[in-house]
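ARCHIVE CARD
CATEGORY: sequence design from structure
SOURCE FIELD: tokenized fold
FIELD CONTENT:
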């Protein structure tokens, strides 16, 4: 059977509160805990769950991605539990209403300059307490550089990136890596 230690088995491993000590985040959690309890909107439950998440699970979204996601939905409010970052490759920003946990200075300036609006979650709770006319967005979680190393590098068919000290001629460039040294896979 199961060797149960004192306290019984661990049944729930989901977060019930954020690990962060950030006061403002804690206040938002209080607000959305109330909204999730008192309204029937799934939106508030999802936002609350995402407020608990670690930074890795709250990836940033660039302005260019934001504009692409919001194409044709300019009248709605874009909601992201995370940070909005600037993208210098984007020539012009469309007029958007955005609610996020944070904005980089340049991203905020560009949104405001295009006639848009940057909101916080407490402002959103007043405007749309049940999440009506909002688009809930998420960033690319697997875009971290660390994810490229997941798997077994060197295994046939695997595209995992090896941890190599340098990219020079002497480092992991022997058999199996170039045709002049035996074979190239």
């Amino acid at each position: 059977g199961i060797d149960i230690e004192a306290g019984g088995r661990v049944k729930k491993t989901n977060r019930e509160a954020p690990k962060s000590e950030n006061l403002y985040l804690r206040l938002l959690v209080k607000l959305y805990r109330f909204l999730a309890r008192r309204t029937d909107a799934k939106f508030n439950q999802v936002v609350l769950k995402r407020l608990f998440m670690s930074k890795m699970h709250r990836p940033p979204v660039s302005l260019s991605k934001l504009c692409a996601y919001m194409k044709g939905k300019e009248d709605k409010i874009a909601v992201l539990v995370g940070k909005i970052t600037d993208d210098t490759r984007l020539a012009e920003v469309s007029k958007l209403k955005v609610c996020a946990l944070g904005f980089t200075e340049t991203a905020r300036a560009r949104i405001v300059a295009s006639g848009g609006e940057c909101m916080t979650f407490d402002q959103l709770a007043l405007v749309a307490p049940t999440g009506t006319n909002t688009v809930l967005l998420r960033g690319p979680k697997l875009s971290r550089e660390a994810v490229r190393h997941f798997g077994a590098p060197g295994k046939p068919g695997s595209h995992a990136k090896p941890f190599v000290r340098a990219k020079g001629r002497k480092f992991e460039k022997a058999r199996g890596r170039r045709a002049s040294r035996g074979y190239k896979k």
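CARD ANNOTATION: The chain has five helices and five strands. The helical segments are 23-38, 42-52, 63-69, 105-113, 121-127.
SHELF: design records, drawer C
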